Amino acid sequence: MTDELSRNEYIKEASNYLRGTLAEGLREEITGAIVEDDQQLVKFHGMYLQDDRDLRSERTRKKMEKAFSFMIRVRIPGGVLSAAQWLALDHVARTYGNTTMRLTTRQTVQLHGIIKSNLKATLKEIDSVLLGSIAACGDVNRNVMCGANPDESAAHAEALELARKISDHLTPQTPAYREIWLDGERIAGGEDTVVEPIYGKTYLPRKFKIVVAVPPSNDVDIFAHDLGYIAIRDEAGVILGWNVTVGGGMGMTHGEPETYPRTADVMGFCAPKDAVAIAEAVVTVQRDWGNRANRKHARLKYTIEDRGLDAFRTEVMRRAGVLLQPAKPFVFTATGDRYGWSQGTEGRGHLTLFVENGRIHDVAGAAQMAALRQIAQLHDGEFRVTPNQNLIVANIPTDKQTEIHWIAKEAGLLAPWSGLRRNAMACVALPTCGLALAESERYLPDLITALDARLAAHGLSADDIVIRMTGCPNGCARPYLAEICLVGKGPGRYNLYLGAAFDGSRLSKLYAEDVEDAGIVATLDPIFAAYLAERQKGEHFGDFTIRAGFVAATTNGADFHKNTGAKRSA
Ligand code: SRM
Ligand code: SF4
Prior knowledge:
five-stranded antiparallel sheet; Sulfite Reductase Hemoprotein, domain 1; Sulfite Reductase Hemoprotein, domain 2; alpha+beta; 18% strand; single chain
């Protein structure tokens, strides 16, 4: 190893396949935290050490340790859970967590507020329903996403099968997870090729994300991910193979233009039998070519910018032993979820629920945890977390549909929402996220109420407009692909980006910097008015803001920071 490697590379190398001193740290009762190197390693086990940021200053004043607890992210390929699994997650959230469940933008469930001494009990209960959190975070392949649109049942089943196969194939093999959390027998270390045949001792240079999409829905936001598969079907709906996309990503840092979000490139088309081999080859090329010195330049999107798509494709084909064919035509129409009932096969129905920003809790007038628990006790079908932080109760037999409908309605999971709210996402941000610069999940609902009042005044309430907010530029709610994008800059301040495509294919552009929260409505209102007055038939808001000259189009990630700022004064 050379001195140029980032600190995390040394931590991984010395960790004995992700063990570090986690087992010892768990027994250390004097603190609710774990040592710094283990904080990096525990991510590979699907956990983050956090503290309640609302309590920070008070505890510092009282000379107390921060209010430490852990967030556990469960690995759920394609977001599909059985009713029994739902009930187990609900139980651990109420017994050990902060009594809420958080559906994420990658179709997983996060449990917040678990103190160190409860980690093992929580993970054992999760394991008892055949779920786990290994590799939900860390420098490895994360949860594999899969389109959730219930109108595409047959294709969904095949897409889900691929997502699960890829997920299994790329799950780390280290026995450390079983040993540490589930009291499994300790197994001695070994050669990299034996313990981790795909990753080796130092795993990947950075996180890695894979999705499977079924057009015309782009609910997974395929262009935001390191690797993606687009189902290509014949006229009868049979999947002929997959277009493969590479090099998407959202994260950037304010004031560092060498970091930027990027939309993925379509690299070619592969037959169904080759899809997993392609995934392995893409991962190993990134393992070997990715930047291990600078973590801000370590994602696959930068490897592809640095080496070029052609060289990358050639190396992937060589390693996989597969000749990629030219990509086939495909059309995406939208990134949102399809709410309400849709018809499945054999008389079964699917009900897509609206869960605001993915947070399930029991609050006055909306006992959502209780309602979903009741549904899970009634229903032996599936629960599917969508890529938009919502939930589908899938495959409900006819005789249970009315009862489930009313339980969901009563809990506020079915109410009619405006075009803006039903297309909204916010990341978690404060108080748990250590990287948040501004509020997000706790603020966006109120902002939407204020924006909705203006949209109603313009007669635009029913129009689908995608809005996303994050508390920092890391991009956890994929904001740069939203037609209205608000990114936290500091307490109560946001950068406003406009001009992304409704189908998720084009990034936005900076329109106004450092907008105070109180000024967001006034900044957008004249643009809404112009949209009403000047839009063409069927024109989406993001396309309009470019055609009408409010922002320049971003055609490629590397242009993201060029030609920014308001072009037309509102
Ligand atoms: Fe994220 C880090 C939450 C999806 C890009 N993300 C974090 C952490 C763990 C903060 C930290 O490192 O300390 C956040 C925990 C907050 C909390 O209290 O729960 C966090 N990310 C989330 C979730 C829960 C947001 C949500 O509201 O749903 C999503 C969990 C996904 C999952 O279940 O696996 C989540 N994060 C994403 C996405 C969207 C996606 O993957 O589709 C992105 C952008 C896509 C991408 O990766 O490029 C994303 N998260 C990041 C980044 C920036 C990565 C980069 O390349 O720069 C960080 C920070 C980092 O890695 O250094 C980050
Ligand atoms: Fe935290 Fe930033 Fe991700 Fe929001 S975007 S959850 S503030 S890391």
